[in-house]
Request: fold
Amino acid sequence: MITFKILTLFPEVIEPYSKASILGRAQKKKLIKIECIDFRTFSQNRHHQVDEKAYGGGPGMVLMLEPIYRAIKKTRRKNKNTRVILFSTRGKLFTQKDAKRLSKYQELIFICGRYEGVDERVAEYVADEELSVGDFVLAGGEIPALLVTEAVSRQIPGVLGKQESLEEIKGSYPAYTRPKIFTVRKNGKVKRWKVPEVLLSGDHKKIAEWRRQKR
Reply:
């Protein structure tokens, strides 16, 4: 079982999605475990402050090193195969190969940034690696954390029910279902959107070839 520990200031963003659908079922079957850790509770100052102005000036606030370091130190399981990941716009682009690689760990700890980023010492000394989920900027690391959690979880046998459901096994190709013909009226004209005839033929060899060509 893999344990995902997501360090965030907003557990309420993570929890509903992690309890629904595939991730929710996988947790009930004890194939994975998802924990939300509010690292604000690990701040030692009176007001549980977690952000500060950056040295050298500049706009916005930066997340402090101390509460993140303390959160990981207190919650990391000893003697476990653990990987600590910081989500960052400067990180390596996350791919399917990374999902497979990370599925071999027993514990994954995700650090979700916010505001103007995270004290660079988190990347230098605390995280094992930095990942990015795309060439764009989000408000925080919560969506990337959920994205990577789901992509990694799909690699664990039993999470999808049928391992052949993995797209890297079956391939990604167009799929159709009933009705065979869907009629719509567009710009005063009747349009009929049809299912490709080959899929209705019952010829499994031809269907397999069509799907191979469409991958």
Notes: The chain has two domains: 2-164, 173-214. The chain has a mean pLDDT of 94.
